[in-house]
């Protein structure tokens, strides 16, 4: 966070506004992901070396489920349709399956850089 951001958060009332905006943004992202049946981790940049490595480390079942979610989302987007509301309710958007691995791989990379 920038120095200006740290000072702005100390201004009375700003944290409440930021928290409210964050909740609204999170709800918007969740709604959009549910429409396509995606998880938040499906959106991670595959060109990031740590994300690419974490995807390689997925179990065959997790990798297959991820690929199916992405293919279904592309298909729905091309057809300009969404999943039915019943299926949308079953989607667990915030269930991380790659994030922890990515964080661990980034930590290892940083430690390795510090030792060199």
Task: Characterize the structure shown.
- The chain is mainly alpha-helical.
- The protein has a single domain, classed as Cytochrome Bc1 Complex, Chain F, CATH 1.10.1090.10.
- Helix content is 71%, strand content 0%.
- The longest helix has 23 residues, at 14-36.
- The chain is flat and about 45 Å long.
- 8% of the residues are buried.
Features:
116 residues, mainly alpha, Cytochrome Bc1 Complex, Chain F, 71% helix, 0% strand, flat
Can you lay out the helices and strands and say which pair or pack?
Elements: H1 3-10, H2 14-36, H3 49-56, H4 60-79, H5 85-90, H6 99-115
Helix pairs in contact: 3-6
CATH architecture title = Orthogonal Bundle
Q: Which percent range describes the beta-strand content? A: under 5%
Share in helix: over 70%
Structural class by secondary-structure content: mainly alpha
Main sheet characteristics: none
The count of domains is 1
Distance between the termini: 27 Å
Integer average pLDDT: 91
Question: At the third CATH level, what is the topology name?
Answer: Cytochrome Bc1 Complex, Chain F
Q: What is the H-and-E element order?
A: HHHHHH
CATH first level:
Mainly Alpha
* Number of helical regions: 6
Round the Cα radius of gyration to an integer and report it: 18 Å
Shape: flat
What's a concise summary of this model?
The protein contains 6 helices and no strands. By secondary structure, the protein is mostly helical.
